[in-house]
Structure formats: C-alpha cells, structure tokens
Fold this protein.
Amino acid sequence: MSITQSDAPIYRQITTCTESYFEREGDTPLGMGWPNVADAVRRYEVMLDVIRDRSRQVRLLDFGCGTGHLYQYIQSQNNLKIEYHGIDLSPKFIDTASARHPEINFTCGDVLLHPEILQTYDYIIINGVFTSRVEMSYDVMLNFWQQTVKLLFNKASHGLAFNAMSKHVDWERDDLFHLPLDTVAAFLCRELSRHFIIRNDYGLYEFATYVYHQSGI
C-alpha cells in the first residue's frame, strides 16, 4: 500500500491525532501527546545528544517540530550553539510556533510529497514522529519510517536522531510503533550507514538512535 498516493496520505493521521491532543491540552508537552513534562524534557536532552561537537554552531532541523517546544528548551541551555529550523505538517502548530517565535524559520509542508522544501542541515532531529502509528498497520508505519529516515538522512551532513517505542516492555499498545532493534540495525546498515548508536539508557519505554555519515565526526 502506498503511503503517499492519495489526497490525504495515510501518515497524516499522526498529525490529526496530535492536533486532538493540542485542542484538549493546549500548547504544552501534553498537547503534543507526551504524558508529562519531565519525560518530554528528557527526550529533548537525549535528542540533542546527537550533536558531537558543541563548541561550534550547527544548523539543525526539528522535523515534526509541533509548536516549537524543542526550541524553547534550546533557549534555556547555555552550552548549545544551534541555528534552529522547524518543519511540521500541521498549519495549527506552525502558526502557533511562528507567532511565539517570529525570529525562527518554521515551515509547514509534507517532505515526502514535496522534498524540494528541505534544505541541508548539519543535524536533523525526529522526536515523537515514530512513536505512534495510530490506526496504521505495522507494515505501513514501517514503510513510513523507512522512507522518512532515508530522505532526511540525505539532508543531514553530519547525522540525525530519531526515537521509537521499544519492543522490550511489559506490554505493547496497539496504537504505538514498537520497532525491533534488529530491524533498525538491518535497515540502517543496508540503506544508510553502519555508523549508528542505539540508546536504551534514559528510563523511558522507547529507544533513541543516532545515525552518522562518518565515524567520530
């Protein structure tokens, strides 16, 4: 099944679901679908750890940026030199983010349908896009994950970070994307790079992956 060849690509249900949280919870981490603020902040920390050299400024894309909470976190840190850009499918989220941070380049668009809207960045962060599959089948979500990561990796000169739900949990939710680690490793080695790190050390029922073009850079 194609994930893009329709008037409303099937993966847009992720955005629709998140917008429902936003309508209910407001412009907070809970409004982005996270269960609490502390876990959301921990994710920001882990995602930004993909940056290897913090002594120089890097150009970063926050893919699926929502209303720009990662940028707010970056502003609160003194050791981060980041030229931030955000992109999201939701006009509601981009309008909210742009109103709060008019100095930032926030873009609303679908990169799978319109890859030309992507620029080149040092790093790309994909936080929360691959945690829920809503009503999509596992295979459809897997296809979405593979297409998106492959496209974005080619636009990140150093590397990218993404997270997904772990298979190593007490129980699995039918609406979440529990991605096997072997599946991740096999795809990355075959399609992207052998230089990757999988993190399962930050206390949540998920894992984060950093994928680099080269070792140690």
